[in-house]
Amino acid sequence: MVLEKWLGSFLLLLVGLSNIALGKLYFGILLDGGAFVGINIGTDVSNMPSASDVVAILKANQITHVRLYDADAHMLKALANSGIEVIVGVTNEEVLGIGESPSTAAAWVNKNVASYLPSTNITAIAVGSEVLTSIPNAAPVLVPAMNYLHKALVATNLNFQVKVSTPQSMDVIPRPFPPSTATFNSSWNSTIYQVLQFLKNTNSYYMLNAYPYFGYTSGNGIFPIDYALFRSLPAVKQIVDPNTLFHYDSMFDAMVDATYYSIDALNISRIPVVVTETGWPWLGGANEPDATKENAETFTNNLIRRVLNDSGPPSQPTIPINTYIYELFNEDKRPGPTSEKNWGLFFTNGTAVYTLSLSASGRITGNSSSLFCVAKPNADASKLQQGLNWACGQGGANCRAIQEGQPCYSPNTYQNHASYAYNDYYQKMKGSGGTCDFDGTAMTTTDDPSYGSCVFTGSSNSSGTSGGFSPPVAFGPISPQGGSVNLHVSRIQYLASAMFLVLALL
């Protein structure tokens, strides 16, 4: 018992240290252990799916972060209990009113944020969309709007959970290359300085809309298209900043670094950059030869691999570039050229426009119409046990297949057994309102998790017999951490194993 207590105390100390070692402490902001790729959801779409169908598509592709351009009530309700992190948007039309009235800001927060928390996982408010370049007349009230919204969050004790920022385009940086000499447009210096001060004071982050597609097509051949598409360049064409001698393998990295240098030029630092929009159109008009499905597929898959390698640009190599792709569906109702209407990754029926690798390991999206409910790879073991007990008991799941000697018993882990039980419950009850949540420990997937003689309920291979599940590696757009706890490991063995695991990680 003394040994066990000692091991437990030592483990707690090591876990505390490992939380810092595994995370990324960036000037007082503890970022999670892995970068993520999220997605923007625009609504200028003919035959827009219902909010619940949109969320089903997100879950089917395990998209864990989304940005909304407004605070649509239907979407915010549908996202409840999904675990998906949500950025809600103040529209450009709302910025003026909020920036002129603290009471309007407070009412907006109460209606569009506080009333949905904690069920809907709102983590940030994006104030406007490229306000400085799209509605410059609103610039004087942009920072007051951000301040009023933040104060409303403070008043409701939500300021630690919900950050406030404002997305800006690369147009506010007139000469982004070389990155080391980049500065913000001097005509916006006063406003941008105030924005940056606000972000620093509130531990928020800079929201950047960065499009290599536009950087390339407007560059008159200065840069090769491979540079915009994350393709490797031959030695004679390497892109190098002459002042720092940093090599840039992609225009995307250069744009992010240009933003960091522009922030530094105003003598402000310690503000991480999150890319709130980037992408590549897959169809264009006769005068848009680079808007092709092949280029879009190359850009998007290389972008995902780039972001999920968990590194930053050359000047900030340890800071991941969390990124939101533009966009979920084609917004065919948008005005402008053909390319403007064709940025979507998915058609409205949920099928992918082109082949997507939604993970660093190259996992390909599936277009299966079947959804399975499985345990999250990084779910807490005690919560998994509670969820397993509920599903096999009150939930009415048939858990015979995960008993010893049955086809789904091995591997004998909470992860495996909970996944089977969760799915059996979900397949039986989803038609009458049953959900795949289990206190945040479950997620849906289109990947059939059946293996060997172990067949999941709902599988096309099912003949009515019970099967089982071999836990898959979760795919993006996330960089998951996980593992399972064996059901029969003794407490001392578990503590000792965990201790050595943490030592290895450190």
TrEMBL record:
Annotated EC: 3.2.1.39
Subcellular location per the Swiss-Prot or TrEMBL entry: Cell membrane
Enzyme class: hydrolase
Catalytic activities: Hydrolysis of (1->3)-beta-D-glucosidic linkages in (1->3)-beta-D-glucans
Cited InterPro entries: GH, Glyco_hydro_17, Glyco_hydro_17_plant, X8
SUPFAM superfamilies attached to this UniProt entry: (Trans)glycosidases
Residue ranges occupied by any X8 domain in the UniProt entry: 371-456
Broad class of where this protein is predominantly found: membrane
Swiss-Prot/TrEMBL keywords: Cell membrane, Disulfide bond, Glycoprotein, Glycosidase, GPI-anchor, Hydrolase, Lipoprotein, Membrane, Plant defense, Signal
Recorded GO CC terms: plasma membrane; plasmodesma; side of membrane
Pfam families cross-referenced by the UniProt entry: Glyco_hydro_17 (PF00332), X8 (PF07983)
GO molecular function, one term: glucan endo-1,3-beta-D-glucosidase activity
Source organism superkingdom: Eukaryota
Family: Belongs to the glycosyl hydrolase 17 family.
Protein's recorded name: glucan endo-1,3-beta-D-glucosidase
Species of the source: Turnera subulata
